[in-house]
Amino acid sequence: MEHAGMARMFKTLEETGLKRFLAASSSVYENAVIVFFAKAKVISGTIVSFVANQKLELAKDVFAETFGLPTEGMTSFLDIPNQTVVEMRGRFSGSEVPFREPIKNKEMIMKFRLLHDIVAKEFCAKAGSFDTVNTEKFDLMVAITAGLKVNWAQVLFQVLVAMVNNPTRESQGFAVQLSVLLERLVKAELGESVKLHPQKVLTNKSVHTYIKKNLDVRPGSESSKQTEVTCED
């Protein structure tokens, strides 16, 4: 049953238009990404940086085109209907009590714990506890699960802009997507790429491992640690 739930959840992710963003790569140019953030600034809505002695200009339309992101739909999750939020609180919860953030992700049923891990690693700036479901991550999960029409190009580009404006919010997850962008935009040697650990990439094998390690994690249980994964075909 858990496998069927996972399959439905991944199908929903694909239908949002996020597949190419999630499956961007299984390796990163760590040093080049560090340089990108160190020299980046936002000018008139465009991210400008210097990597490998070359000027890099990253606009939202290039970001959207690279990952095939939807450019129409809501840009603020304040527009999510209250009825949808209430419904999702019930679906996410691993108990009879409706889910309310902030709370540990182990209070969710397994398929939504995995969705939370993907959202936390891939869509959010690095801030706060990874395994705590805050409002930002909850809203993203609601939008994905409910199949809402979201302008993901705008939403995710603004996350990247926030990372540039506040370097303490840099995310290792975005390092993968930035590596793809750097390969496309910088016509120079980027240095050595580093392959991600297999358990950091979402494949059939890593999903089975995730399920096996989390089967004994029940709402309210403190006994088990979760395995983090990101997404790839």
Short description:
The chain is mainly alpha-helical.
Tally of domains: 1
Overall pLDDT, averaged?
Answer: 79
Largest sheet at a glance? 3 strands, antiparallel
Proportion of strand residues? 5-15%
What's the total helix number? 10
Give me the count of strands: 9
- The topology string of helices and strands comes to HHEHEEEHHEHEHHHEEHE
| Strands in their spatial order, largest beta sheet | 2-3-4
Alpha-carbon Rg, integer: 18 Å
Query: Which blocks of ≥5 consecutive residues have pLDDT under 50?
Result: 219-233
Q: What is the percent of helical residues?
A: 40-55%
Please state the overall shape, judged from the principal axes of the Cα atoms.
elongated
The class by helix and strand makeup works out as: mainly alpha
Termini separation = 21 Å
Protein name: Delphilin-like
Organism: Dorcoceras hygrometricum
Structure description:
- It is a single chain.
- This protein is mainly alpha-helical.
- It has one domain (2-231).
- The protein has ten helices and nine strands.
- α10 links the parallel β8 and β9.
- α1 packs parallel to α6.
- The radius of gyration is 18 Å and the shape is elongated.
- The relative contact order is 0.21.
- Residues 219-233 have low confidence and may be disordered.
- This is Delphilin-like.
- It comes from Dorcoceras hygrometricum.
Features:
mainly alpha, disordered C terminus, 11% strand, 10 helices, 233 residues, elongated
